[in-house]
Amino acid sequence: MPALSRWMVRLAFVYLLFGGLLGGWMLISRGFPDLAWSWHWYLNHVEWMQMGWLLNLVFGVAYWIFPKFEGGKRPYKVLAYLACVLLNTGILVYSLQVFFPGTGLFRLVGRSLEGLAMCAFLGHLFPRIKPFAATLRTK
Amino acid sequence: MPTVSLWFIRLGFVYLLLFWVAELGGFLLQHFWELEWVWVTRAGRFHLFFVGWLTQLIFGVAHWMFPTKNRQELRGNESLVMASLVLLNVGLLLRLLAEPMQQVYPGTIWVLGLVLSATLQWLGMFLFTWNIWGRIKEKTKKKRGKGT
Fold it and tell me: Is residue B31 part of a domain?
């Protein structure tokens, strides 16, 4: 498993545990009205589970598993690394929304960074969506 | 495919079907029979998909496919993973029961059910993560010595 994949998969599991902790806390709060404030963290729970857990895992495993080029090379690696940084920065920025509930700025910026991450990762991965036997010359 | 992966994936597909049935049923009950209480099952139905199907499928395949830990324990402690399977599923099923019941008929027993459900599900995720963490690594390189 290459280094980038290891990092993304580890991050995915960390998000799973923290997102799950939030989710569990919100579930318990259904029985305790005094804990209803925990639902302010609902968006963060969804964010950490969808973007943090799922997307990091998918990106990490896809980077590892998808067909490589001649010589076992993965093309445009820098795009994949950029995607990792943008995605996780976007998640952290988005998560700050809980401290600033009146404004949608953090959600907007966070989502924009995540969108850029998806474009970057697609740029890396698209050429690798090919039969194993097919080759592509890299410049 | 290891036995526990088999069970994760099979259960995942069962939950996928359950989700579809629950969503269809919920839609019909709410829009045609106009039963308003159906909305309290919404979160549980969503988690049938996200936890029951998606997360379990991921767990099953990851446990099967990730690099092996070492020659003695290929996939780490299988008992831990089996425990995580049981905890996750019991917790999820408990949630499906306790969450709507607590909202419709508030009471201590359902609150306990919610606490137990949350705890079991998180413990299940934690045990799986604990076991797989050591397998998120570079593929073990075989050592080659002279004469081998």
Answer: yes
CA distance B88 to A20: 11
Query: Taking CB atoms and an 8 Å cutoff, what residues of chain B touch A24?
Result: 118-119, 121-122
Measured between beta carbons, the chain A residues lying within 8 angstroms of B58 are: 57
- Judge: B121–A24 Cβ closer than 8 Å, yes or no: yes
- Give the ipTM of the model, two decimals please: 0.87
Host domain of residue B82: 3-67+74-133
Q: Is residue B142 part of a domain?
A: no
pTM, rounded to two decimals: 0.89
Count: domains in chain B = 1
Helix axes B108-133, B78-104, angle to 10 degrees: 150
Q: Is residue B14 part of a domain?
A: yes
Residues in CB range of B67: below 8 A, 6 or more apart: A1, B135, B136, B137, B138, B139, B140
- B50 part of a folded domain: yes
Could you tell me the two tokens for A62? Answer: 């896809």
Q: Do B111 and A31 touch (CB under 8 A)?
A: yes
For residue range B73-112, list pLDDT tens digits in order. 788 889 999 999 999 999 999 999 999 888 888 888 999 9
Tell me the residue type at B59.
Answer: F
